[in-house]
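Schema walk-through. Below, the input block comes first and the output block second. Nothing else is stored per chain. Lengths vary across the set, and this one has 406 residues.
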Amino acid sequence: MKRIVVLGGGFAGLIAAVGAARKLAELSIDRDEVRVVLVNRDEYHAIRVRNYEAALADVRVGLADVLEPIGVELVVAEVTGLDPAGHAVACVRRGRPERLAYDRLVFALGSELVRPDVPGLARYGFDVDTYAAAERLAAHLASLPSRPPHPGRFTALVVGAGLTGIEAATELAGRLRNIAGGETVRVVLADRAERVGAMMGEGACAVIDEAMQALGIESRAGVTLEALDADGALLSSGERIAAQTVLWCGGMRAHPLAAALPGPHDRFGRVSVDRFLQLEAAPDIFAAGDVAAALIDGVHPSVMSCQHARPMGRIAGHNVVCDLFGGEKIAIDIGYYVTILDLGAWGAVYCQGWDRQVAVSGAAAKRTKQMINCERIYPPRSRDPAEILAAAAPVVQAPPPQFAAR
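--- output ---
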């Protein structure tokens, strides 16, 4: 029996496994001839982009609900090593080391938060990189009202004003007010760049500024985090902020095991792949999602987001089967790019194109953001094999809808 192994049950990995099963079914290849195996560290597909939100009850989907109906095997294990020359993966399952051989591999272990060696950050800092981290933050926030009075009890410092940092800060403004019982709430967003949201372009920056002002969020630009303790944080400017909640959103890197993949890697640790998402130095390996650097339209490199991870997963799932059985592979070709940034109770901003021109903002953009977060990026949960397989067709979805202001 041949084996296709997919590493990672995130946005790229899950849909790649489903896509492989879909293509096998389309080719009428029996499950006794080839097995699709998905390896993930736990039993859940995490809707990671929602970890900054207050309500966490619906941010995970059981992998078995998606994989069992279509005959994909789930292996719950921690991937610990790669042996591209030996066509095998090392992992630890139920505390025991195992070695999984493969005929074709889809590497989709995603990305992780960059964690610099800032004094006190590991002990006192919070983040929203994982579901467990988001739960820890939620439990901490819920405990604040019962804590002894402190100048920074209802102050949150968010360090890193990328997309995650902005979304976390604007959401925290409302979360803290909901629990503070009328006491003064303070949210500060700090970044090394000279302007919060600088990567978004001038038009979006103006919208972000408006939202932050309306939400009462302070900004500190051109600074870094120097140290952190139980009472607050010290910035590189010399300013000390009393804050019992410090949220680190300081950038992402590809999963460390991506370094074991042969071929060039970019500054984020992502391995270079061709337009078919295949490694030139190891043609039996495909990579998709945050671990892969692909030219998604022949010109622009992919970004580390579910917007690109999901179509990359669809293409990888299709291509890995075609490569194994001699079918026609499909090149990745995503002809649009949008950025939709949640801005808490104020609304959101929807930008089009690589230059991020503002298309709509406020409540109308928020409707689009909620539709994406709560509907569009979810796998089918019906356990209907036909619906599940159809969701992995190797096509690119149309851009998210733009709602008119009401």
